[in-house]
Amino acid sequence: MTAPPDTDRGAAPRRSRRLTGRLLARRLLRLAGSLAVLVVASFAMIHLIPGDPLRRMLGSTAPKELVDQRRAELGLDQPLPAQFADHVRQLLSGDLGTSFFSSQPVADIIGQGLPHTLALAALATLAALAVAVPLGLWAAVRTRDGRRRGTETAFTTLTGAAVAVPEYLYGLALLLVLSLGLGLFPPAGLTGPASYVLPVTALAIAPAAMIARLARVETLRELDSDYMRLARAKRLPAWRLYAVHLLPNTLTATLTMGGLLLSGLITGSVLVENVFAWPGLGLRTVEAITQKDYPVAQAMILVYGALVLVVNFLVDLLIGVLDPRSALSASTTSGEG
Fold first, then answer.
1. Is the CB of residue 215 less than 8 Å from the CB of residue 249?
2. pLDDT 10s digits, 71-108
3. In this structure, how many other beta carbons lie within 10 angstroms of the beta carbon of residue 30?
């Protein structure tokens, strides 16, 4: 005897919620594990760099007794496992330590520079998307079905070359031409809205080229889909055909790539910030590593790494929201394994 059809009416939503809950739990566990590895790696990387931070701080002519006394005060005379245990205890208590050189709390240093670094990365991401999505859509429409081979060749060549150039080289070129040469923008520091133009441009060029290539591929695929054939058969206006029907269906992969690029821009901004003397974390990171300022350098590596991990985690969740079938499929496959 078969059960009534409505007895399992809520089974599918309950199963979907369970799978989503398991997927989220696994993602959170993965994030926690990655953060733990990051803590170990940041501690090991800084202590493996040759040189004595006390000699840098006190000078090469400082008496050995003074150096030993200061080393004991900072706990650097302890074995590395004991230093690491102290480091973890401080992190768990929310204490990032104090700079060896400036005696400034590390949390204050990060609080001063992090907003400027995030603003630079976020503006570069928005600029890259604003340029790349229309450019990729335009290139796909122009080169559909093998038309305009010259346009396709120029697009792929220029975007490929743009991706290959590092951000800091763009920064140096923009600085020399548009700032020092033509005097159109401030050469360094943060003095107003115009100060954002050159560093944001330097960071956005390569990601914009990469996203434009992806947007073109996604758009070409969507142009041959059934719903686009139906929309063209209805003789809809071009703006409605592309803006209402085509664009939303090409944005999923493009926005996902944009989110991933944001995490790359956060770390890639270090060199660009040094080119433009930007008051973000980049300058302090380079100084801390070269000076072996352990608390600052470890905290900077942790901040950059944690930002990348969190952005990737959020992008992962975004993929699940925009394409639930792929997320549930991954959860089911993982559960069966």
1. no
2. 787 777 788 888 888 888 888 888 888 888 888 898 89
3. 14
